[in-house]
Design brief:
2 domains, 8-stranded mixed sheet, TIM Barrel, 24% strand, alpha/beta, Lyase, Ornithine Decarboxylase, Chain A, domain 1
């Protein structure tokens, strides 16, 4: 039976978070129990053989250990991510890795094969230009299914405007190049976007990959990618894993020769992370009311990059009535340094603790020292 949580973990652990904020001006905090619960829920899917966590979402050591202990495997997109796994999980990293470089130099593919990793081919150029690298190798191929979506154009990973994957109209050439290089395709892969809430998306992807897989007799895995949507607000509906499982179980009954893999990243870790910061200044300007905090887009660039919506609350005054509309801004010298616009807040004061939710994914990993601001520490509880 899948575990569910009726209340945000950070409400239950409010006092602990306030104590952490008392010792840190800014901090990312990750609740490991939430990550473990998310992995176990995903692994409970009857239809899915392997769950590979997208390491790019969060590579904190405690987070990776928790994921591995709970049973997740890993999708890495760079040698640095593989090395990180080896450092954190020295005894069991390599056999659990799918290596998926994208527009990478020749040396990275050669390195991946020499290291004994399962390598994913993302486009035809490497097979054309370096066929000798692929001779005798078993590979995955990433296909662009031309169907998908996402919460912002920058996370849509299908179609001609996206750099990812082999197009469906290139399959004939892929088949020819694979045969010429004496390469075996054992897995067909796709990733159709991020923040997708329709469980039917992955069934559609499976059907598209099936058509490609029939062209390659050694294929035994269809990797359906990730992109499962995460609730932005506490009262938003959670993704329907049961419906996803039902659809994919039906698919497997019809096509039992193929194992199905999923590659969630944000789904497993986003809700487990918060960013704690402090009120620095309050300012009125015309009709605008600004609430300044002690970190900004250097610590969480998603609102500026993707227009992402993150819940933001005054943790110090969580039980007080919200009476004013504010725009939450940081100390970065950019007009775009806005973490949230038109948010309803209680009357706030300097040094109040502000919590930004859903930053367990693409928070710290996308942070920078822009304006030479410090990157907040990561703390696990």
């Amino acid at each position: 039976m899948r575990e569910t949580e009726n209340e945000a973990w950070w409400l239950r652990k409010r006092e602990e978070l306030l104590e952490i904020a008392d010792q840190n001006l800014n901090a990312y905090v990750y609740d490991l129990a939430s990550i473990e619960r998310a992995v176990k829920n995903m692994l409970s899917l009857e239809s899915v053989s392997r769950v590979l966590y997208a390491v790019k979402a969060n590579f904190n050591a405690d987070v990776l250990r928790t994921l591995a202990h709970a049973g997740a495997d890993f999708d890495c997109v760079s040698p640095g991510e593989v090395d990180r796994l080896r450092d954190v999980l020295p005894d069991r990293a390599d056999g659990r890795v799918l290596f998926t470089p994208n527009f990478a130099p020749r040396d990275e593919y050669e390195w991946g094969f020499n290291e004994g990793l399962r390598v994913t081919l993302d486009n035809l150029y490497p097979l054309k230009a370096w066929p000798e690298l692929f001779a005798g190798q078993e590979i995955f191929v990433r296909i662009d299914p031309n169907k998908g979506g996402g919460h912002h154009e920058h996370v849509v990973t299908v179609g001609a405007q996206s750099k990812f994957g082999v197009s469906l109209d290139e399959i004939d050439e892929l088949e020819r190049l694979v045969k010429a290089a004496n390469t075996k395709v054992i897995g067909i892969h796709a990733h159709s976007g991020s923040g997708i809430l329709d469980p039917g998306n992955w069934h559609s992807v499976a059907m598209e990959l099936l058509q490609v897989a029939t062209r390659f007799p050694d294929v035994n895995v269809l990797d359906l990618g990730g992109g499962i949507g995460v609730p932005a607000q506490r009262d938003d509906p959670v993704f329907d894993l049961d419906s996803l499982d039902s659809l994919l179980v039906d698919f497997r009954k019809s096509h039992p020769q193929y194992k199905l893999w999923l590659e969630p990243g944000r789904y497993l870790v986003s809700g487990a992370g918060v960013l704690l910061t402090h009120v620095t200044q309050l300012k009125g300007k015309g009709d605008m009311r600004y609430l300044g905090v002690s970190t900004g887009i250097n610590s969480l660039i998603r609102p500026a990059l993707y227009g992402a919506w993150h819940e933001i609350v005054n943790l110090s005054r969580i039980d007080e009535p919200a009476t004013e509309s504010v725009t939450v801004v940081g100390p970065i010298c950019e007009t775009g340094d806005k973490l949230g616009s038109d948010r309803t807040f209680p009357n706030s004061e300097e040094n109040d603790v502000v919590l930004i939710a859903n930053v367990g994914a693409y928070g710290h990993v996308m942070s920078s020292r822009y304006n030479l601001r410090d990157i907040p520490p990561e703390i696990t509880i």
